[in-house]
Amino acid sequence: MSMNITLSREDVVRLCERVEGAQTRAYAIPKLTDEYPNMTIGDGYAVQLELRKRFLAAGHKQVGWKAGLTSKAKMIQMGVNVPSIGFLTDRMSRPESSAISTFDLVHPRVECEVAFVMKTTLQGPGCTAADVLAATDYVLPAVEIIDSRFSGFKFDLPSVVADNGSSARFVGGGRARYAEDLDLRTLGVVMEKNGEIVTMGASAAVLGHPAEAIAMLVNILAELGENLPAGSFVMSGGITEAVAVKPGDSIVARFQELGSVSMRFV
Ligand code: 0L1
Ligand code: MG
């Protein structure tokens, strides 16, 4: 992946302000490459870094990271072929079984993910799934509520990365388990919307093993000059495609061995 930055500092700040406005005031914007067709993935991460700095300066606390676009189903659904990463803050977290407002979201969709909590810091490059498992404290089931801010879901990788990988909200829950007590590759998951099964899959859909997605995330962080600190909460990416939600919908994600995570939208 090329982390080459072609945008000027002024353009990075301009695009960051555009994305920040769309995220905090919940409106759709055209994909950034309409105006900057030569934007690279590195440019996307430069905008994302600027956004992270602004949120942290405003008092948000970073709690971890998310890997995105890590399953074939997601890549096909979104028409991209490389995974992405984004940061997670305390403001995005919602309790299990809570009512989640859609008023401050653009087009929310939900994904079932395995989340990892790290006990030791990981540093790439060259991080492997085995390194990830050795550094993991425990895993737990999670639902990510993604919210691409781009009109008509028209986007490409540089735009998605700049928009922090569509990160919006997340809910961790169920039962925390030690990774060594599970076969993390073959965990089944079923998502129900309003009592009906809408999608299902197995965790191997995420790059063959969810720990592979965390290793990829650590290696992307290394390219950005960062590590994955101990204590981080990290989501490994949707096992199935994302499902749209609207006010009135209730979601239950049932994970084999890990219990379930539920929420409703208002
Ligand atoms: O969490 C993710 O898989 C990132 C998805 C980015 C694109 C989208 O909005 O679906
Ligand atoms: Mg996701």
From TrEMBL:
Protein's name according to its UniProt entry: 2-oxo-3-hexenedioate decarboxylase
PANTHER family in UniProt: 2-KETO-4-PENTENOATE HYDRATASE, ACID HYDRATASE
EC identifiers of the protein: 4.1.1.77
Organism ancestry: Bacteria, Pseudomonadati, Pseudomonadota, Betaproteobacteria, Rhodocyclales
Enzyme class label: lyase
Gene source species: Zoogloea oleivorans
GO cellular component, one term: cytoplasm
GO molecular function: 2-oxopent-4-enoate hydratase activity; 4-oxalocrotonate decarboxylase activity
NCBIfam families, per the entry: catechol_dmpH (TIGR03218)
Domain Fumarylacetoacetase-like C-terminal: from-to ranges: 108-265
UniProt KW keywords: Lyase
Taxonomy, superkingdom: Bacteria
